[in-house]
Design a protein that fits this description.
Elements: H1 2-5, H2 13-36, E1 44-47, E2 50-54, H3 57-61, H4 70-80, E3 81-83, E4 98-108, E5 113-124, E6 129-133, H5 140-147, E7 155-160, E8 163-164, H6 170-180, E9 181-184, H7 196-206, H8 211-224, H9 240-252, E10 258-262, H10 270-285, E11 289-294, E12 305-310, E13 313-319, H11 326-329, H12 336-339
Parallel strand pairs: 6-11, 6-12, 9-10, 10-11
Antiparallel strand pairs: 1-2, 2-3, 4-5, 4-7, 7-8, 12-13
Helix pairs in contact: 2-4, 7-8, 7-9, 9-10
The protein binds adenosine-5'-diphosphate.
Length: 343
Amino acid sequence: MVFQSMMWCSSGRRRIATRLAALVSYWKQFSKQFFRKKLSRGDTLIQDRQVFSVESVQAIDDPLDVTQSIEEQETQVCKAVVPVMAQPQCLATPAPFLVVRNLKKAYAGSTTARLVLNDISLSVERGEFVIITGPSGAGKSVLLRVLGCLERPSKGEYWLAGRKINLFPMDKLALLRNQQLGFIFQQPGLLPHTSVLKNVALPLLYAGFSEAEQKRRAQKVLSALGLNARLLYTPERLSRGQQQRVAIARALVNSPALLLADEPTGNMDTRNEREIMAVLQALNQRKVTIILVTRNADLAIYAKRHILLGDGYIVNDKLIVNTQRALDDLEQSVTIDEIYPGV
Ligand code: ADP
């Protein structure tokens, strides 16, 4: 199966020669990279802009046996490394930022296991703004928790930033979460008696930054989100939309590559809802990749791609042709600067 996914499956003498040349050249590169740095399972090797994951260090250590048939040599390579994306053309194009394949999630029931995500396959490129909607119980939050490495899938593959992470141990997943992911939930979850500035600086405190650096970075992101005048306020003095903006600032302060949002506008009035969507759109314009799950399918007009989930399956996955600017839908009284200075 893995073997099928490599580009070297073809017929005809010329193609066989090309396959062999590619195989040997790749193998040399992999071996070089292997000797240069200590590799372990799950590490990545990059060759011609394509990302491969190390499956077996033992196999990569064995020299390629050139007396064997091409198929046997390919099998040896495939035991050692796996391409991130099982598409022949992937050797010419960079791998997507996030790939899940045949993902399943089951929870133990009273008698049998209950499948709540069933055969989910999708890929997300850097810079996308994906909205996932579906009825209550469709599996949206579970999917977001799996994508956010808060839970492991029961089956299937999950690749993030070129690394196959579904088998990562929990400590490695926690590190990945801190470095690559930011989360926003329906409840902002701010410390009530702590200033906006300190709330946002908290992840930096945990990451071991100096107090001055925490302050500098938190202030920068809060200012980008239009909250410069509220740095010393406690959260209860802010509107619901402003509180959620603080939560977004806290999610962004570590500069994550992917922002995951679960019902970030839940229980908000339309004005606050649009304000938050405008902020997310502005961030997306600045290349932050966003995946947002919500029951509110009306919000799909503000994203670039809409995935509909039903009963644990992807029912539909389409691009939004005419994405609506949330700022345009906000009342005239609200200025752009008030929402997001610098847009
Ligand atoms: P949605 O976000 O689409 O409303 P969820 O993803 O929260 O739905 O839940 C999907 C299904 O998975 C629901 O039937 C829910 O009861 C079940 N579920 C979610 N989390 C757990 C859990 N930790 N243990 C058992 N079942 C769960």
